[in-house]
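Q: We require from you a single protein entry containing the residue sequence and its fold in token form, and nothing else.
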Amino acid sequence: MSSSGTTNPSNGTSTSSTRPLTGGLIFGRFKIDPTQIFYQSPTKLTSAVVNLRPIVPGHVLVVPQRVVPKLSQLTNDEYDDLWRSVRIVQHALENHYDAGGFNVAVQDGRDAGQSVPHVHVHILPRIKGDFERNDDVYDALEEWAPTNAMVKKNMEEKEKMELNVPDDEDRVDRTMEQMEDEARLYRSLL
């Protein structure tokens, strides 16, 4: 939640202003700008961020604050907070997109296709007919990875870093302004 938001103690949900959080988030080796964060759990152990390269409208990531590559490396508190946050974010997106279902996915470790070595949960609102074959979403998730252009942009805007990731020319990176607008919208839903 943003610094001016409040938490409903009965269900753990938060209400947020449309102001971005202060500070940022480290996602693997990437610095996530505060304007791209639309939810932070009351414990501050978990954040939700808009996606640079969404597979479907509303495709977001829920990320623990601490950088670890596998779910088994999270503490019990971090693990519980992550999944509570997934539920809160999913509920907000369900209402906004009138989603008939969701794909909630974790690629737990490099061998499972994880492209950024930091636990993260993909939340994808699904609308009937959004993929020709319903299971095509899994192919799209498997191909999801930061592009070299994303790495270059991040280095230019923040600091130099090395990240060897595969090219993915099928999707176009969104602008910072597009992601900020989306994060502002989602903050208003929570």
About this structure: The CA atoms of residues 106 and 121 lie 5 Å apart. The longest strand covers residues 121-126.
